[in-house]
Amino acid sequence: MDKIYSSNIRISCDLLMQKSYSRLLGIVGKPNTGKSTFFSAATLALVEIANYPFTTIKSNHGIGYVKTRCLHNEFKVNDSPKNSLCINNFRLIPVNLIDIAGIVPGAWEGKGLGNKFLDEIRRADALIHVVDISGCTDLEGRTCKPGEHDPIDDVIFLEKEINFWILSLIKKDWPKICRISEIESKDLCSLLEDRLSGLAIKRNHIYQAISSTRLNLKKPTNWTQNDLFDLIDAIRRLSKPLIIVANKIDLPTSKNNLEKLLKLNYIVIPCSCEAELALRRAAEKKLIEYTPGNSDFKVIDKKKLTNNQISALEIIRKEVLIKYKSTGVQEAINKAYFKLLNMITVYPVEDLEHLSDHDGRILPDAYLVPCGTTAKQFAYIIHTELGDNFIYAMDARKKRRMGEDTKLNDNDVISIISAKKRG
Questions:
Q1: Which residues of 352-388 are buried (b: 16+ CB within 10 A; e: fewer)?
Q2: Which of 92, 102, 165, 361 is least surrounded by Cβ atoms within 10 Å, i.e. has the fewest?
Q3: pLDDT in the model for residue 11
Q4: Architecture of domain 344-422
Q5: Which residues, 6+ apart, have CB-to-CB distance to 224 below 8 Å?
Q6: Which value, in Å, is the radius of gyration of the alpha carbons in the chain?
Q7: What beta strand segments (E) does 223-328 contain?
Q8: Minimal CA–CA distance to 20: which of 420, 384, 389, 388?
Q9: What phi, psi does 369 have (nearest 5°)?
Q10: 381-387-389 Cα angle (round to 5)
Q11: 299 in Cβ contact with 287 (< 8 Å)
Q12: How far apart are CA 163 and CA 35, in angstroms?
């Protein structure tokens, strides 16, 4: 099996993350739920992992991967990826992950490591909330008896902490904002966007939030405190969409709690971060064949494994992979990008006939871009000059021209024709 993580991929990913279309995925939750284990499993980064609160004092940045079916079989070619990897017919596209310091009640007021948490969450486009589904940790992240704590409380308190934090940023100036909006006829959404710009909250998030709450945009002075809080809650859901990772799913007390979490209005992924970390480390040492997200693995040579290692692997297979079809780590990353952030995959090539770049590499690059991206917008994503000189694009499958306003579809393979290229 090819090694999944290499210095070349990290260099390519560093360049990739400088592009305007990149999205940052924040891993959040209270202390001692498995956040750092999730991060370490997803990135194979060496981070401190321990069963006590505030192990993560400083946020950890790393590169994970989105997994999608590679197109080389469809086009009957042997691909040579440049900015990503192709392993066992899957394309692994690098994405930016951040393990954020644990949050506790009162974080928005600065309790615990609240200030660190909020400073990092500002830049996140979507959140993975790692929850101890076994109920073995209380609201502060301290160890308690299995099943003693209700993990639903963790979801509720995280929502409130972020809501109160956003509210604190506008509440002091709220009367002034209302007055400017009503007396000077300034756009309320623009005023709020200016106030919340540091949180990666956009005007369209605010418009959609006001629309969903059915508040009178022209009369904010008539809004109650509950109205304002409902608006903040809607803005949070739109600007910081969240997926729940139900971690420690292999523990006895987890099943009933999972059923309760599944009733919430969130995507919930059953997960065992420890199992994923064990499998990826075993694969890196070439003890097993395992592709992240798969429902099984293959032992390469039993003679290289101890009896304890063989037993541990079989427990992972029986208690996690057979029951839940995966460990949940890769599934969570995929759903965060494809469902929460609504991204699609696009392959740019220069030579349409051979599906190659100017160096002859076949299907070299796979880009994650927002759904709705047009052909010309994609040209700008690749290079400003390509966008400036855009004439049209060509669809590799249908061999048809795509105008500048043509919206791209998932797994499109396109060649961009520019004035400079034509000349």
A1: beebbbeeebbbbbbbbbeeebbbbbbbbbeeeebbe
A2: 361
A3: 36
A4: Roll (3.10)
A5: none
A6: 23
A7: 242-247, 267-270, 288-289, 298-299
A8: 384
A9: -135, 155
A10: 160
A11: yes
A12: 21
DSSP characters over 140-189: TS-B--TT-S-HHHHHHHHHHHHHHHHHHHHHTTHHHHHHHHHHS---HH
| The pLDDT of residue 23 | 87
Q: Does domain 7-148+241-338 have CATH number 2.170.190.11?
A: no
pLDDT (0 to 100) of residue 364: 97
Q: Are 274 and 245 in contact (CB under 8 A)?
A: no
pLDDT at 14: 45
In the chain, where the domains are located: 7-148+241-338, 163-233, 344-422
**What span, in angstroms and rounded, lies between the C-alpha atoms of 124 and 215?**
27
Tokens of 11: 């260099």
Structure tokens at 251: 């523990």
Run means of pLDDT, 10 residues per run, the chain, 423 residues: 38 42 86 91 66 54 94 97 93 92 71 60 91 92 90 92 88 91 91 88 92 90 93 94 96 93 93 96 93 95 94 96 97 97 97 96 97 97 94 96 97 93 51
Which pLDDT score, from 0 to 100, does residue 421 have?
A: 56
Q: pTM value?
A: 0.88
Tell me the fold of 163-233.
Helicase, Ruva Protein; domain 3 (1.10.8)
Contacts of 71 by beta carbon, 8 Å cutoff, 6+ apart: 79, 91, 347, 363, 411, 413
DSSP letter at 3?
Answer: -
pLDDT of residue 54: 44
